Amino acid sequence: MKKVITMLRVALIQSRVGTNRKENLENAEKLIKQAKNSGAKLVSLPECFNSPYGTKFFNQYAESIINGPTSQMLSRAAKENEIFLVGGTYPEIDNNKYYNTCTVWNPKGELIATYRKMHLFDIDIPNGITFKESDVLAAGNNLSSFEVNGIKVGLGICYDLRFEELAKLYRLDDVKIMVYPGAFNMTTGPIHFELLQRARALDNQVYVLGVSPARAEQGYIAWGHSQITDPWGKVIAQAKEGEEIIYSDINVQECENVRQQIPIFSQRRTDVYDTIKK
Ligand SMILES: NC(=O)CCC(=O)C(=O)O
Q1: Where is the CN hydrolase domain (predicted)?
Q2: Does the annotation count 47 as an active-site position?
Q3: Is 2 within the bounds of a domain?
Q4: Which domain holds residue 263?
Q5: For 170-211, what is each residue's pLDDT tens digit?
Q6: Which residue, of 26, 61, 162, 270, is most buried by count of CB atoms within 10 Å of its CB?
Q7: Mean pLDDT, to the nearest integer, of 236-262?
Q8: In-domain check, residue 74
């Protein structure tokens, strides 16, 4: 039988991101080491941690996963620090298409998962924010998960948080931790970022890790407030807006406890849901 260690120290790196890729990578590598020195075993960077976030930047900064400078740094950092590293996201180019992609590296520095943002961030809020990722990016079509000490971890990216179907598919695949690198904005972030993470945690009885870049002074201004939420829907760690690492010792046995105490997944009325719309 597979041995599952239920305790895990996680670290979310809310890094500052500027226009210089080399500096962004060096800064991320330094912060990863800091997280490791504080005992973290699962570490995550934010969305677009190596480049500014914006449609005019995606093709300018895009890289191949195979041997690109960002992949090289992530692989090295995972190996040197002997951690599982969720490499936030960066713009990926593959076959002349661009994606917003998350890569995951194991303590040997091997690539063990990739996830391309499935729901592209296309919104238009008058006097708030207009953004259209689909002007440049193609959407991914697959779920992606990996295991840390027998614990299954699922991946989503930012706007994906809004789609409860995606999180539910992961839960049905027995995921215990969802990681969402994400750069929420200053219009929706204050009211939605915490709430969406608590909702996904509560309705799927999973831990949710939401990892934002630090707030910039110009360009796309991220809300920050990276957050760790437990399967009760309780926020157990939350960053402010600047550069910061937040930590938590999570115990995935909590997922099992909540799932037994409030067994909503065995109580779902799929017999009704599946017929009512027909
Ligand atoms: N990078 C994103 O997908 C941003 C999502 C966001 O801000 C939202 O309101 O949703």
Answers
A1: 8-252
A2: yes
A3: no
A4: 7-276
A5: 999 999 999 999 999 999 999 999 999 999 999 999 999 999
A6: 61
A7: 98
A8: yes
The number of domains in the chain is 1
CATH number for the domain including 33? 3.60.110.10
* Smallest CA separation from ligand 1 atom 1, residue: 183
Three-class SS of the chain: CCCCCCEEEEEEEECCCCCCHHHHHHHHHHHHHHHHHCCCCEEECCCCCCCCCCHHHHHHHCECCCCCHHHHHHHHHHHHHCCEEECCCEEEEECCEEEEEEEEECCCCCEEEEEECCCCCEEEECCCEEEEHHHCECCCCCCCEEEECCEEEEECCHHHHHCHHHHHHHHHCCCCEEEEECCCECCCHHHHHHHHHHHHHHHHCCEEEEECCCCCCCCCCECCCCEEECCCCCEEEECCCCCEEEEEEEECHHHHHHHHHCCHHHHCCHHHHHHHCC
Ligand 1, from 129, 185, 195: best to mutate by most atoms within 8 Å of Cβ?
185
- Verify whether residue 41 is a known catalytic residue: no
Question: Which atom number of ligand 1 is nearest to the Cα of residue 182?
Answer: 1
pLDDT, tens digit (0-9, with 9 covering 90-100), for 37-81: 999 999 999 999 999 999 999 999 999 999 899 999 999 999 999
ipTM surpasses 0.90 = yes
